[in-house]
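Write out the 3D structure for:
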Amino acid sequence: MYSWNCEDGYESPNFANFFPDDEVAGKRLDELYLSREKLTVTDRELLDAFRQGLRRSSVHPNGLFGWFSTAFGWPKDPFQTEIFYHAADLAAPQEIRYNSVYFGLGNFGKKSDNVLRLFGQILATEPYD
């Protein structure tokens, strides 16, 4: 079960625990981004590389999340939604949080109760109030 659709009550996103602070993984994600037109990795490998490298990637979150949100077909992998969910944590850097909501959580149809609750928290927090 993923946090974004947990039915046993609210499970808040946790940016610090979900995304490792791994410099090597950040560089690998940058390399994948630069070669995104000719990737040979599986979807699961890309999902894991994004999760492992997000905190240390040098690519601007707008480009990174824009690419990541379009890299997979429909339906989206639930793990991809989990990544967007944890990246939208109020403790995440604002640019990461904004792009996670814009390119990820805001784009899929039906929202789980946990995603809706997170949206409420985001809307009631600076600078969105």
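The mean pLDDT is 89.
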